[in-house]
């Protein structure tokens, strides 16, 4: 398998194609970013690769290697501007189409993720000891994202910045407790666009960076997101999720969406049983 992000790799792939089948593996949409026209892949079987839903112990921006990868021959799960293998799977297949063993494996995996509180990024704590968990009825969690992430920039969005997302949550819940969780890649010395300075925001409480997103989700009733994977992790924990972008889990009747999905006409259900959840203290202010 060749990882294709430069024109010379395509020439090599073509020369090898005469001897045996060759797959061109394109990382995300690097071909488009490098200005490679689609015609250069004519006659080659291509596959796009991206970080999986369980990424790593640390941040991607720190070059931590991924623990899982998503492979797609049509597009990518986070890019709703075109079809993807994932979207096709959700659109066409019934549960009965899957072998019982595959269903059982999927259910066991889901339960393990929930029980062990495994998320996309894990062990991001700075070593701070946090307080005992506390659940607040009616609380809202706003999930920050990297604002130049492809799940935002490649899709239609009703809201495209974290600041706008916070403002919408406040407008919808003027009297309720609202928490904001910064995206890990927007923290630290090396940060990407999307950090929000909450100084002076009396109603918004920032989730301490030592608190895992899984614990933050478990402590609230509603989750606001543009297109974060955290929204899917919230669905896994039976939370009400409101989306303002085009995440892969939106448009199927599972979430309240502010963008239309004309290709996603089926109504899906969450197929796993009631999750294992724990609540948490979000602010960890040392009090």
Give your account of this protein's structure.
The protein is of the alpha/beta class and 287 residues long. It has two domains: 2-92, no CATH class; 97-287, 3-Layer(aba) Sandwich (Rossmann fold). The chain has helices at 7-17, 30-33, 85-92, 100-115, 150-153, 162-172, 213-218, 229-236, and strands at residues 2-3, 23-27, 45-51, 69-72, 140-143, 178-181, 204-206, 222-225, 240-243, 256-257. The protein has a six-stranded parallel sheet with strand order 7-6-5-8-9-10, with helices on both faces. It has a four-stranded mixed sheet with strand order 1-2-3-4, covered by helices on one side. Strand 8 (222-225), helix 8 and strand 9 form a beta-alpha-beta unit.
Can you tag this structure with a few keywords?
Rossmann fold, 6-stranded parallel beta sheet, alpha/beta, 2 domains, 287 residues, 10 strands
Break the fold down into its secondary structure elements and pairings.
Layout: E1 2-3, H1 7-17, E2 23-27, H2 30-33, E3 45-51, E4 69-72, H3 85-92, H4 100-115, E5 140-143, H5 150-153, H6 162-172, E6 178-181, E7 204-206, H7 213-218, E8 222-225, H8 229-236, E9 240-243, E10 256-257
Parallel strand pairs: 1-2, 2-3, 5-6, 5-8, 6-7, 8-9, 9-10
Antiparallel strand pairs: 3-4
